[in-house]
Design goal:
By secondary structure, the chain is an alpha+beta fold. Among the domains are: 29 residues; 34 residues, no CATH class. It is 21% helix and 26% strand. The protein contains 1 helix and 5 strands. The strands form 2 sheets. Strands 1-2-3 form a 3-stranded antiparallel beta sheet, with no helix packed on it. A two-stranded antiparallel sheet has the order 4-5. The termini are far apart.
């Protein structure tokens, strides 16, 4: 029975896989990345980005000053880029937007109160 079954001798050290530790490091890094993503979503209150029924509008500014509006309605995401071109046409003034010292923009609609 000993000739068909290869049994290590008691004096021989057991063989170890040198890549076993690398697999554990990969698992730990995946858990760390998922935990970091959950933390960032909760800190920046961005849970609406992964909610399929929510509507989110964001304004993104790059290093050169170009701005982009990102609109998410349900599962559809649309991005609009500012071109800086002036346009003209027919329309009516709806209100005024003000930028505060802290960078926040406030829109004040005009009221057409008739006596």
């Amino acid at each position: 029975m000993g000739r068909f079954l290869k049994l290590p001798s008691p004096d021989e050290p057991p063989e170890e896989d040198p890549l076993a530790g690398v697999a554990n490091l990969f698992d730990v890094s995946i858990v760390f990345i998922v935990g970091l993503m959950i933390t960032l979503f909760s800190v920046y209150r961005m849970g609406d980005l992964v909610d399929a029924t929510s509507e989110v509008t964001m304004v993104k500014t790059n290093a050169q000053g170009g701005q982009e509006i990102i609109v998410k309605k349900g599962t559809e995401i649309t991005a609009y880029k500012f071109t800086g071109e002036s346009l003209s046409g027919n329309g009516e003034r709806l209100g005024t937007a003000y930028r505060l010292a802290n960078g926040q923009i406030i829109y004040v609609p005009e009221t057409n109160a008739t006596p």
